Input
Amino acid sequence: MEARRSGNYEASIWDDDYVQSLTTPYMIVKYEDKHMEKDLHVTALQFRLLRQHGYHVPQEVFSSFMDEAGNFKSGIAGDVKGILFLYEASFLSLEDERILDLAKDFLIHHLTERLHQITDESSLAEQIRHALELPLHRRVQKIEAKWFINVYETRFDANFILLELAKLDFNMVQAKYQDEIKHVSRWHKETGLSEKLGFARHRLAESFLWAVGFTPEPHFGGTLMDWIASRVHADPHARFEVLLFHAYFSITNPINKKELRSLEQYPGIIRWPPMVFRLADDLGTSDEMKKVDVPKSIQCYMNETGCSEEDAREYIKHLIHATLKKMSKDILMEKPFKDFGTAAMNLARISLCMYQYGDGFGVPHHETKDNLVSLIVEPFPMP
Output
C-alpha cells in the first residue's frame, strides 16, 4: 500500500502550550470578583437580582467585606447606599446562611443610626425608612412600583424618559384595574348578595386589593375576577391551599398533566404561602383573641410556654421569617413553576401588606384605603 504523502505543512503556532498560556484581565469570573470586592452596592444588587430570578449565588460573595473574625468590617457602615442594598439582599437568604443572618443584625443597627443622622428629607433617607419598615422582597409589586416612581422622580440624576415610560405603564395598568373593579362591583350589585348575606362582611374593594397583590399582571384578569368573587363575602380564614390550586388552574394554560403531577414533588409551593398568611393574620388580628372561640397561634404559644403576649408575637414573627426562607428555597431556587411560583410568592406578600398595621381586611385602616386609592383612583399626571 502506498504511503500517504506529506504536504510539508509548517508546524502550527497554536500548540497546546501557547493556547494554555492565553490570559486576559477581563476573564468573567476574575473581573466580576475584582469589581464586586470593591463595590458593596454592586455586589448586593447583583446578588439580590440573581437570587430573585432563581440563581443560587453563594453568600460567600460578601466574604471580602468581612474581617478575619467573621464579622462585617465596621468601615462599610460609611457606605450608606451599599449597606442599604446589602440589607435588601439579606432578605433573600436561605436556611442556615449565617453570613446573611449576621448581616441583617449589623445593618439594622447602622441604617437606623444613619437615618437619625440624615437631616434633609432626601430620597436616600426615604428609602432607608421604607426598607426598615418592610424590605423590598416582601412588598406588593404594584404598590411598591408607584412608591418607587415617586421617590425616583426626586433624584437629581433621574432619567426622565424612563420615568415617563414607567408612569405611562402604571396608568395603563391602572385603567385595566378600573375596568375590572367596575365589572365586579356591577356583578356584586346585581346579585344582591349584600342584602341576602346580612351576616357577611362586604369587602369588595379590599378583596380587589388582595387579588391585585396576588396576580397583578393584567393578562391574568380571569384569575383576578375569580379571586374577588371567592373573597368578597368569604370567611377571612378560608383555606388558601384551595385558592392556590384554583390559581394554578387559572394561570396555567394549557394544563400539563405531567407538570400537574409534579406538584407532589414540590409541596412547599402549596404549604408555605398559606402559613405566612395564617401567621400574619394572627399578628394583625390579635386583638380579636378574646372575641373568638378558636385560639390563634399567639394564644396557643402563650398557653404552651407561659410567656407574655409580647414574647409570643416575637416568636410568630420569627416563624414568618423562617417560613419565608423556606419559600425562597422551594419556590425561587427550585423554580418548579414560573407564573404559579410568582403567584405563590405574591400570596405571602399581600398577606404581609394587609396585616402590617392590623386587620386591613376585616377592619380596613387608612393604609388599606391609601393603597387602594393609589392603585385604582389616582393616576400619574402626564405632560
Observations:
- Residues 64 and 173 are 43 Å apart (CA to CA).
- The first helix runs from residue 16 to 21.
- The chain is about 60% helix and 0% strand.
